[in-house]
């Protein structure tokens, strides 16, 4: 097919537009363009000859590339084609890259970062079993053997717990807590938590042992825990595998049937229903927080009074809190990934949101911030300050697993059922609000993507209903908060004054007579408050 040559005149002279139409390596009729500009001073007749020669060479080069590509395709087909030769390891990486753009973590089309981390871990496990096999050679039998092996696998974890007399051991060696802090520098774990019996991984226990020069077995008790994977966990492992093969079917089109689909159609587990604490249980939990240090206390108050997700609390920074307007702007998550450490990313919906917070939480945060500033000053250069609200002793952020540990301690202190998890505090917060404010307001505070929110507006645009939601939470927990700020003696004095006032109202002359009356009424089945 002869090239088309079109002469054009512009300010600098003649330019020849060249259009080549040809059949590519797949026998599709396509076109490609280029241009030829004559040398200055060249006659028009000579320019046209050179333009034709240039077009012929351009066409020749294109057709030569097509022929070479046809030969490559023929060779690929003889060997089964490049996709046909793809191994599972290559397929899994192709799928992962299509689901998560690591160069742009904020991409709204990305799968969640938590799922991304989980997928990386599971793909490593799959690759141990059949990573080097060609995808087209992986049969139902291969996957069945893996599923069978998966069902019998045990989750083995080794934990270390400080010996009950660890503080005495340090003291006997002349090691004060401040000295141990300095020796323990750059280890991302709260030393106080260790000394108070928190479970730690071997690497953390070993680092402390090496730092203070005391054998590991002298400082820690070792416990190996082995348990079967939960049914839901096994289902999740199978689901990722099935999804990868679906990518091979629907996108790459290298197989026609999913070898991982068997064992996925029937799963006997039921998704756990998220329960909420009753208002009575919530108050009991709130009051139990006073038995713990101020960081744990503040974290649990925040979870209960804002409904924030644990990862959102981990990503919270002081600049996000407006004490004047009593609001918090939630715009990032702190997520821990075994492969990449702690990373910060946007919220679950990739949108920020601003919510009002109760007065009692504002007061708690002011008190906590002062404590944290004193604490940071005592740690000196050891602490890496990045404005984080909740942090470990080296400045690294508190992640969901640590918030979970804190929750369990308070839950047990409040004598609440073990079925409750940290996420139940979020659910409790939203459940309380549903009874008082419009559902749209609750959705906005929760950060649910299915309802339009007002996160892009400033504080003066926060809805009146949202302010009411904040006040509702304040009222529910106000009495408990006030009791926490009062000393035991002050509370007893107030109770004494109330008893005196009630005694006078009922016409009794002494408290003894009044309490005898209360006991008598109680024996008759009447419960009269003091």
Question: Summed up, what is this model?
Answer:
This protein has helices at 44-78, 88-99, 113-130, 140-152, 166-172, 177-183, 191-195, 202-212, 216-219, 231-250, 279-288, 294-306, 310-314, 359-379, 400-413, 422-434, 439-446, 464-485, 488-506, 511-523; strands at 4-10, 13-23, 29-36, 154-162, 199-200, 220-228, 321-322, 327-330, 333-337, 341-345, 353-356.
Describe this structure in words.
- The chain is an alpha+beta fold.
- It has 5 domains: 4-78; 88-153 and 230-250; 154-228; 279-482, Orthogonal Bundle (hpI Integrase, Chain A), CATH 1.10.443.10; 488-523.
- The chain has 20 helices and 11 strands.
- The protein has a 3-stranded antiparallel sheet with strand order 1-2-3, covered by helices on one side. A 3-stranded antiparallel sheet has the order 5-4-6. Strands 7-8-11 form a 3-stranded antiparallel sheet.
- Helix 2 (88-99) runs antiparallel to helix 3 (113-130), helix 12 runs antiparallel to helix 14 and helix 12 (294-306) crosses helix 16 (422-434).
- The longest helix has 35 residues, at 44-78.
- It is elongated and about 130 Å long.
- The N and C termini lie far apart (104 Å).
- 25% of the residues are buried.
């Amino acid at each position: 097919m002869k090239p088309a040559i079109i002469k054009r005149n512009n300010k600098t002279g003649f330019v020849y537009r060249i259009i080549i139409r040809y059949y590519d390596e797949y026998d599709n009729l396509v076109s490609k363009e280029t241009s030829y500009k004559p040398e200055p001073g060249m006659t028009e007749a000579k320019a046209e000859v050179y333009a034709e020669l240039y077009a012929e060479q351009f066409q020749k080069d294109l057709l030569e590339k097509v022929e070479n590509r046809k030969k490559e395709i023929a060779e690929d087909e003889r060997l089964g084609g490049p996709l046909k030769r793809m191994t599972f390891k290559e397929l899994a990486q192709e799928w992962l890259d299509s689901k998560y753009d690591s160069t742009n973590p904020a991409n709204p089309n990305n799968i969640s970062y938590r799922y991304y981390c989980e997928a990386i871990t599971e793909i490593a496990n799959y690759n141990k079993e059949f990573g080097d096999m060609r995808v087209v050679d992986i049969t139902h039998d291969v996957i069945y053997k893996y599923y069978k092996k998966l069902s019998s696998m045990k989750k083995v974890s080794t934990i270390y717990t400080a010996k009950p007399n660890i503080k005495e051991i340090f003291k006997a060696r002349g090691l004060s807590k401040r000295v141990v802090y300095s020796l323990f520098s750059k280890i991302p774990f709260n030393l106080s938590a260790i000394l108070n019996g928190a479970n730690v991984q071997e690497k953390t226990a070993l680092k402390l042992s090496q730092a203070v020069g005391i054998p590991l077995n002298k400082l820690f008790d070792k416990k190996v825990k082995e348990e079967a994977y939960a049914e839901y966990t096994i289902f999740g492992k199978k689901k990722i595998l099935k999804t990868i093969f679906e990518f091979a079917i629907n996108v790459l089109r290298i197989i026609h049937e999913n070898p991982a689909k068997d064992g996925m159609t029937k799963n006997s587990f039921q998704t756990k229903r998220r329960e909420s604490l009753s208002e009575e249980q919530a108050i009991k939990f709130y009051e139990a927080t006073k038995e713990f240090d101020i960081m744990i206390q503040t974290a649990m108050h925040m979870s209960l009074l804002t409904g924030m997700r644990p990862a959102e609390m981990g990503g919270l920074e002081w600049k996000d809190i407006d004490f004047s307007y009593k609001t918090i702007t939630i715009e990032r998550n702190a997520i821990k990934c075994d492969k990449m450490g702690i990373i910060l990313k946007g919220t679950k919906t990739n949108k920020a949101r601003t919510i009002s917070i109760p007065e009692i939480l504002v007061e708690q945060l002011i008190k906590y911030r002062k404590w944290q500033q004193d604490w940071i000053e005592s740690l000196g250069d050891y602490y890496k300050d990045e404005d984080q609200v909740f942090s470990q002793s080296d400045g690294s952020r508190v992640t969901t697993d640590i918030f979970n540990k804190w929750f369990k301690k308070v839950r047990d202190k409040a004598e609440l059922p073990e079925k409750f998890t940290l996420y139940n505090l979020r659910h409790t917060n939203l459940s309380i609000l549903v009874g008082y404010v419009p559902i749209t307001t609750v959705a906005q505070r929760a950060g649910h993507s299915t309802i339009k929110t007002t996160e892009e507006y400033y504080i003066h645009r926060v809805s009146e209903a949202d302010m009411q939601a904040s006040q509702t939470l304040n009222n529910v927990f106000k009495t408990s908060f006030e009791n926490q700020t009062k000393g035991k003696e002050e509370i007893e004095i107030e109770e004494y004054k109330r008893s005196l006032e009630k005694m006078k109202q009922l016409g009794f002359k002494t408290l003894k007579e009044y309490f005898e009356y209360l006991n008598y009424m109680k024996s008759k089945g009447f419960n009269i408050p003091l």
